Amino acid sequence: MNLVRAALLGGVLVPVAALLAAGPVRAQFGSPEQQAANAQDRAQMMAQLGIRALRPGPAADSRAPNHANYDEARANPYPDWPDPLVTRDGKRVTTAQMWRGVRRPEIVAAFEQEVYGRIPPNVPGVTWTLSASEAERIGPVRVTASRVIGHVDNSADREITVDIPLMVVKPVRHQGPMPVLVMFVLGRPAFPAPVPPSADDVARMNQALESMLAREDPALAEVFRRHPGWQPIATPPFFPPPRAAHDPIGELVADGWAVALIDPTSVQPDNGAGLTRGIIGLVNHGGRRKPDDWGALRAWAWGASRVYDYLAQDPELDPRHIGIEGVSRYGKAALLTMAFDQRFYMVLIGSSGEGGVKPFRREFGEVVENLTSTDEYHWMAGNFLKYAASDATGGARTAADLPVESSELIALCAPRLTFVSYGSPAAGDALWLDQQGSYMAAVAAGRVFRLLGAKDLGVGDDYRTAQKPAIGVGLLDGELAWRQHEGGHTDVPNIPYFIAWADRWMGRRHDGG
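-> structure tokens emitted (513 positions)
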């Protein structure tokens, strides 16, 4: 009976568009066992750093006694942010050569040391193998959908296995190599429009299932006799069900793009207990991290870079025009991917909040202390805990002591295409994410885009007084772009704007050519 149940449940399909629309969501706090393991891992990192106590993070609920600040008048206690165009020894960066040769490496090193962690030099390679492929139709567009598995070499530690499922969707009709958008999704990426068996094949499967069930429980034979019209597996409809009104994959393939879907948690689990597993655990042979080792966000970005390696070898795809997309915590990972791997041409950063586009120094909604909680600290390097320490050998520190700011992470993307997307708090993209502060960070990054010959938001450089545009008003004329849409915690309403914006910079038509 268990095998039959598994077969039936395995046929339940969750549309990829629904996963993209919702953004990544995790069960609150996880299981008690997982939380205990998370707390234990964080405690050992605190011991390594000589931290005796951390400040607690505020609550998102404005009615809670310890609620986060949502008063703009109190949101900027540290208004002076690091200048991306001034080197550590105080020299002004005035040329693209000086940025690339001096200042950019300084910023990268600071983010790696204190915020996101370093990728170790001994990370094993990935071998990609085609698992399955089929011809499908997404709306009117014929596509090929291929499941590929990336196996990370675990010959140095057979106890830990890291396999990365990847779904690559390509329109059949296209002109020349296609641009690609790599999309972080929640859960194992599924075939976007699976082709069902024929009605005759479904009838045969139903006969076999009914026979199996009746053999295991003879009383079920009478149930099937009383319900002759019911089938364990429904006969496929003559007409396929309509697709969602806003289907990101459908919109991309209709415009001649390919899409690659990856679940980042296949690279690294999304919890502190999992730091001894996944790619981080594999490299450390199941041991604990050091303070400057990479966290989950950097590991997810590493996974996206390995996807780039695979896609760049496909002659149907254009390695010059590969982008990365993600929402919420996956928006943070998409930004990191773009910032650290300069091969990516474009990024769509959806509602990324603290640890992404939102400034660390802003006291509005989620703050540094929330990222150091047991529910999120694993995203970051261990060293990041220092900036929420209230009692430590090295003294108490705050966000103001960080050597970098989120605006500099955005600046690391310059001069490549960088689209910052948020939604409406009224529709569910909570104020917790600090849309205003994120806009300020994009403004502050603009000077680097201009230095490198790109266009920024075109609103000046004064991030302190910058006020974001109204919802629905996009700043889409430059390589750095901003748009806050009318929807909730998703980037789906901005996908058409992203496609048109990126097509314009790539010199593409909007008919798939």
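The first strand starts at residue 51 and ends at 54.
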